[in-house]
Write a structure and sequence with these properties.
alpha+beta, four-stranded antiparallel beta sheet, Arc Repressor Mutant, subunit A, nine-stranded antiparallel beta sheet, 433 residues, single chain, 31% strand, 35% helix
Length: 433
Amino acid sequence: MAISEDEIYSIMFTSLKHPVRRKILRMLATKPMTFMEIVENLGVSTSHLTYHLESLGELVSKLDNGQYKLSTFGLATVSAMNGVEEAPQIEPKRRTKLTVKWQAVLGALLIAVVLFAGLFAFQYNTLNQVSASQKALAAQNKQLVSCGTGPDKVYNFLEYMTAIDARNYTVTLDSDVINYRSDFNVAEETIKYTLTTVVTPQTSMDVNLRFRNNHFSRYDLTIGESSPILIPNQPNDLLQTANLTLTHYKAYSGDAYITPMINLLDTVTNISSNTYIQGNMALQITNSAGTVMFYWMWYQDGIYFQSKGLMMTFQSNLLTVMTDGYWLFTVGSTSLAVSQDQAVSIAKNYVKTMSYPIQGQTYTGFNVVSGDPLSTQMVPHTRGNSVALVPYWYVELKLTSIYPGGYNEVGIGIYADTGQVSDANLLVSNAET
């Protein structure tokens, strides 16, 4: 969609007005840079940089390798900015009200002339690049590019990451929502597409994609009544398929941490449920009723940090779910001040004192069935608005009574480094509903 002149002027003036955005434009005019390179050079937080990059809008574009560069529009803006900054300065003389007035008028005219020149250069270069862009489109479609901004990029993701033959489908954008996640300090984009076969009888399936700070975060495929149409000659061996998918994802994202994941997968000889460890990288494979899950995660001091991990789920050799939080989360602590037994004791005592709203009424006096808990798991969790993971016990207990809504269990989360109860939620057991 073409940008109006009013929008162009608005973006130009907004960018030139803020010193941080002017500095970003100067930096990118020299060479393309990654998000973290810009953060390090500017000395600002990632949230501030995300805000400024979003404010720059069409002035900045993101390359396939994750680097940011100036668009033609951005180059024209930098030219305009340089023109204003390089304008000769006049030695101050006796200033009168009339002189000040005319200097302000002349300054405004100079800025307007430079901006018009930059706009003309932008429009001229854009027209010249149309032909070149069309010629480059075929080559671009063969590359792994980040998805989330149009059907062509969804085609690339599906074909290179899932082996779905997207040429046999019409892709419809259903929704595209961007929110700011204050808990992780990231901009989160959630996109939903419907894929409908181009031949009759028509069948469809849904694809959900999530990006955080423009980095892939989640893919979820919901299949209809018929099986998807796949690109011919796909591997029949699931280990080969998983290895190929992970290799493609490394090329797609450019993230170095995927290499040890590939190396660890190379040591696996069958897809039976098992756990493999190399250094700080762990791989858990779960095979249940034809659904196979590969889960790579950070492993340290005997603790599996699941959130700092990458997961792929296959059904009948087809990738149906993929998540990647390895790049986002960090390890904040591995301290275990609270043992598993101590966590169970803390949870049981907490339940006795808790109050819980159910259907508009607050309930107290909860009691749990004596004996062992239903389950106790170590699932490292963040604390506050942070991406740093700390050890965290999650204890599920059976209640002695059934409450409105069928609630008959309770889940208690406890930070294992402090013993502090983080959250408590009533649960419904499937066995009794």
